[in-house]
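question for whoever is on the cluster today: can someone run the full assembly for these? two chains, 232 residues total. i dont have access anymore since they changed the login thing
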Amino acid sequence: GQQVMQIPQYQHVQEGEDFTTYCNSSTTLSNIQWYKQRPGGHPVFLIQLVKSGEVKKQKRLTFQFGEAKKNSSLHITATQTTDVGTYFCAGPLWNAGGTSYGKLTFGQGTILTVHP
Amino acid sequence: DTEVTQTPKHLVMGMTNKKSLKCEQHMGHRAMYWYKQKAKKPPELMFVYSYEKLSINESVPSRFSPECPNSSLLNLHLHALQPEDSALYLCASSQGGFRSSRYEQYFGPGTRLTVT
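^ ran it for u. tokens below:
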């Protein structure tokens, strides 16, 4: 079945350093979504990428969708303590006939710790 | 209003108790979801309701019983739970029907459940 792998599992950085998490799918994705979950909080939608090779920016966050639509990355420039949390990528699960199962496959998440 | 509310925030219940979790959204979303999340793990889908009908049941044990009284409300009835059911239970909603996986999901703050 479809799998979404995310690495690294943990990342510890000093404040001001950059951070990147990578997401790889075993199948081509129609789109990919990124969520952030703060410690003790709930997942919050960050962004959705749809087009092959798409790059989107949100302030210090840069999101990329691979040309083959099988991988994606989230890069944070100059991390701040407010960036602490778990970052999840998620892709929709489709059957062989191209119909959505109506559910997201989440990556395992990358837990980011930022030391001040 | 992009808020999904959940009650209660915390719940401690014995294995013989019956309790219910409640979720509400007023965004006009037609797909609503129940997820279970263990510490340091991604959300695990339990149920999906689309247009108030149960569309997906991820082989969840019958001690969990979902209910969708109307398009804004989602309940999860709990009975005879096991200690391993202790987790964060998240409700989410999204636009369109459940097959519209191109829409982002809005998560509620969750109910932290402890089964003793």
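summary bc i know u wont read the tokens: Chain A has a mean pLDDT of 93. Chain A is about 0% helix and 60% strand.
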